[in-house]
Amino acid sequence: MAASSGSVRGKKDTAKDYLAVHLLSTVVFPHDVVSLHLPEDNPACRTLLDAEDREVVAILSKRGAFPPQRLDEVRPVAVVCRVAQSMLMPGGGVQIVFQGLRRVRLAALHKDGEDLRAEVRAVAEDRTDAGDPHVLDVLDLLSEYLARDGSYPESLDQVLRLNLRSAGRFADQVAASLHLPLAVKRDIACTTDAGLRLRLLADAIEEEIQRSLLEANIHDKVRTNLEQRQKEQYLRQQIKAIRHELGDEKGPEEEADAFQGQLEKARLPKEAKEVAQREIRRLQNIPVTSAEYQVVRSYVEWLLDLPWRKRTRDTLDLKQARRTLDEDHTGLEKVKERILEHLAVRQLKKDMRSPILCLVGPPGVGKTSLGKSVARTLGRKFLRMSVGGLRDESEIKGHRRTYVGAMPGKIMQMMRTAGVRNPVLQIDEIDKMGTDARGDPASALLETLDPEVHSDFRDHYIEVGFDLSEVFFLVTANLLDTIPPALRDRLEVIRLEGYTREEKLAIAKKHLVPKALDEHGLPRGSVQFTRPGLGAIVDGYTREAGLRELERNLNKICRKVATRWVDGDKSNLRVGPRRVPEMLGARRFRSEIAGRSPKVGVSTGLAWTSAGGQLLFIEANRMPGKGDVQITGQLGEVMRESVQAALSFIRSHAVEFELGNLDFSCIDLHVHFPDGATPKDGPSAGVAVAACLVSLLTGRPARADLAMTGEITLKGKVLEVGGIKEKLLAAHRAGIRQVLVPQDNLKDLEDVPAEVLDDLEVMGTEDVIDNISEALLNPRTSPTQRPRGVEVTPEVTEVETQTEAEQ
Asked: Which of 219, 258, 575, 600 is the most exposed place for a label (fewest CB within 10 A)?
């Protein structure tokens, strides 16, 4: 064998044939001894069993675990080994001890029966000196690595340092002695350049050092966490012992047991009960200090606190309900009638669905306070929530529990606060909801209010269906147009147009005055408001459809009386018409037609706003020009079109208006709507604009005590408009004597209070020419005479006829 070995090294160009052994799980380095177990199915087992002192070639495949068959499947450099020992093992297979001799280069592979044979050629290895700088680098890294890894013998560093005669042999010894990755060892074993082997070895050792540092860091953190947990556990045990001594111990098990007891008493529906039981079981297995514990605990509390079964019994006495509604509110007959109808049906059908009433009207007419009266009438609990300005859908339907700080929406919060499943829930300002990237709250509210859906309402947080069918929903809005159509379709709309003067006086005497005295700490009778005095406040200091400004003025008077009482003057005060200016200052409003006389180019229209009806004065001027028309007053597109339609109608009927000789191309017209700071839009000013322009062009003055409303067409028809009741109330407040409305709107007069119709002459018209003839005076007629047999009062003033005692 020795001669054979020498012949390979001496003749570099002569190939030598050896038995090839494919190594899978280990690497043999020159001058290294390795023990290898070969399984029975390895073809080389029988050949190697009696091959002691024979030389074989240990080959390494490039990739994969399958035995190589071709030369291109193995690494080009292999190691010639001597079989130092071979023996059979009890479990099967052969245990072989290899002693590495030298590196060789593979020249060919071929099969000899079942054996794999390899032809090799000798290689001249690089004889790098032991003083190479890479050796020093490996020594430094080796010292650091062995110092960090305690699995190696303490003498290994010294042993390796004593074998520095050859850099290549030193690299092989270090690679064989260290627990390096198998891939790294294969690269080093198949490298003939000693310097390259040292560099590969240095990189591998440095990588192992970094891994060791990372593991040490992780180990330190884990140990610190374990120590912290042990400390917390120790402290927790102490706290538990202290609580036990105090008798208030309540851990996860105790809380879970308490929740289980509540669950048995709560009588939850099947779905909610199953979810609650599952979450209670989870609660028992979660540490108290875990963040998830509080999340699950809060969720279980919400499930148990919701009123799944509890309800109040409705008061179904119609007579008592009627008395209660009359006590709380003056007027509002339609709303009262609708509530009484609901109670009557409930007496006949116990399980009817609650209606969804939508109260639409200007501010201050009692929409919000009406909910309390409804709840008192039904004997239910009352809650209210405002959605004005709401932009986030989750405010209605809640947040998903996966979010930090998640909680149910406002609907579920209101139900938990009510404690019963059939409260009166009032939702205010639904016309003022917004929309942005966080969702559409109007769509979320749609599911809540839809009678076909809300019997199984699912909040994103609760995730269990909750029955809202027994809730009496009452929603309020100032405008109906801004409510989305799909949501508006679910609502039963009841309009609250405003109060007449007589209704305001009755409400002030019955409700507002006692309320103001109580809120300011004044006894009943300390301030006595006479009816003429209240009338002076209503006429001179308020101009609104509702009652808020009236209530503010009453509060102002009570504050002044309270100041007198604190100063020592506790005499009772009687407030009449002459006393009102002393308490409230100069009169703020006068009749809007007081002092007005018929003028050319000025007409009076009626407009509807979210705050109720109001008068709309229209002015027009003419001047020499080129036929231009200027329209001012912050108008919308619809109102501008009404002006254009009115002018086109007048020009097409110039002969009827005796304007046949007028050249429209030689004049400019300017139509202005005063109060320019207020936006205006809508078609209902069409007839008033036409009357204003005809008055201007014919020189006939328009009546100051007459107002009109209606949409105009190019053919001269007057079309139906909305808001008739609000407009007539505004005309009545302003002192108008006569109102012209479209013929089709006469049906709306049944909603107008009788005292308003007694003071107003309301006429229905279908033709614009009839409107204009009724509104304009003959220029040859005295302003105090009305053509066509109708009396005209050019100046209307308010006359106070109260006696001195009333004042």
From this structure: 219
Residues whose CB falls within 8 Å of the CB of residue 153, separated by 6 or more in sequence, listed in order: none
| Widest pairwise Cα distance in the chain | 152
**Residue pair 501/753 in contact by the 8 Å Cβ criterion:** no
What distance in Å separates the CA atoms of residue 702 and residue 692, rounded to the nearest whole number?
Answer: 7
Residues 313 and 485: beta-carbon distance below 8 Å: no
Distance, in Å, from the CA atom of 276 to the CA atom of 261, rounded to the nearest integer, reads 12
- The predicted-structure confidence for 425-480, as pLDDT tens digits, reads as follows 999 888 888 776 667 788 888 878 887 777 888 888 888 889 888 888 889 888 88
Q: What pLDDT, in 10s, does the model give residues 144-164? A: 888 877 777 877 777 777 777
Q: Which amino acid would we find at residue 205?
A: I
Which residue among the candidates 394, 684, 695, 725 is catalytic per the annotation? 684
Distance CA 44, CA 159 (A): 35
Give yes or no: 684 in active site: yes
> What gap in Å lies between CA 597 and CA 755, rounded to an integer?
26
**Residue 801 above 70 pLDDT?**
no
761-768, long-range: CB within 8 Å, 24+ apart, which pairs? 761/737, 762/728, 762/738, 763/738, 763/739, 764/740, 765/710, 765/718, 765/740, 765/741, 766/717, 766/718, 766/742, 767/716, 767/717, 767/718, 768/649, 768/687, 768/690, 768/712, 768/716, 768/717, 768/718
d(CA 85, CA 88): 11
Percent of the chain scored above 90 by pLDDT?
5
Please tell me whether the overall predicted TM-score, pTM, comes out greater than 0.85 for this model.
no
| CA dihedral of residues 601, 602, 605, 610 (deg, nearest 10) | 120
727 is catalytic: yes
d(CA 764, CA 567): 59
Measured distance CA(288)–CA(414) in Å, rounded: 29
List pLDDT tens digits, range 44-75.
Answer: 777 777 777 788 888 888 876 667 878 888 88
Q: How far apart are the first and last CA of the chain?
A: 143
How far is the CA of 92 from the CAs of 42, 67, 84, 88, in angstroms? 11, 20, 20, 7
Q: What is the pLDDT of residues 283-311, one digit of tens each?
A: 877 777 778 888 888 888 898 889 988 88
Alpha-carbon gap, residue 565 to 582, rounded angstroms: 17
Are the beta carbons of 726 and 608 closer than 8 angstroms? Answer: yes
Quickly list DSSP for 499-547: --HHHHHHHIIIIIHHHHHHHTTPPTTSEEE-HHHHHHHHHHH--SSSS
Question: How far is 18 from 154, CA to CA, in rounded Å?
Answer: 39
Kindly state the tokens that stand for 222: 């884990």
